[in-house]
Amino acid sequence: MKTKFLLLSALVLGTVLSIAPARAAADKSAAPVVVKTVPENGATGLPPGITEIRITFNKKMQTDAFTFYPIDDTVPFDKSMIASKPRFDKEQKTFVLKLNLKPGTKYAFWINSPKFNNFRDTKGNRATPSQLAFETKAE
Q1: How far apart are CA 56 and CA 95, in angstroms?
Q2: Is the Cβ–Cβ distance between 126 and 132 less than 8 Å?
């Protein structure tokens, strides 16, 4: 009985160990995705003024390039809005940027886009394009 248990345990452990490297390899080549934003996508009633935008990915990211791009020309976006140097946190998973937001304004941005793909993980995989939209309250 003890021998059967040990053989079964060895078989299960061997199966798990043979699957683990394949799963790890697949995870390394998978595109990173946004798992959280602050403010949340679709948020309304945000106070105008300086607001910290935080975009968290599921993987460590390269810290030397990014694409945070307006979705269309109706979104007011220019360099005067940027209130801080873009950066990543210590874990290299959260992109942080402070913006000076205008009152009563809708904002919508690509996080990467079909054309611009500068958010990449440390292996060079492009992040899946996603969008962040929010609105400030009128004064």
Answers
A1: 6
A2: no
Q: Is residue 55 within 8 Å of 34, Cβ to Cβ? A: yes
3-state secondary structure (DSSP) of residue 57 = strand
Residues 6+ apart with CB under 8 A from 26: none
Q: What is the pTM of this model?
A: 0.77
Structure tokens that stand for 1 in this block: 């009985």
Strands 130-136 and 43-46: parallel
Task: Evaluate whether 85 touches 78 at the Cβ level (below 8 Å).
Answer: no
Nearest residue to 61 (alpha-carbon basis) of 123, 128, 117: 123
Q: How many CB atoms lie within 10 A of CB 71?
A: 15
What is the gyration radius of the CA atoms in the chain, in angstroms? 21
Q: What is the pLDDT of residues 114-127, one digit of tens each?
A: 888 999 999 999 99
117 within 8 A of 47, measured Cβ to Cβ: no
Q: pLDDT band for position 8 (50/70/90)?
A: very low
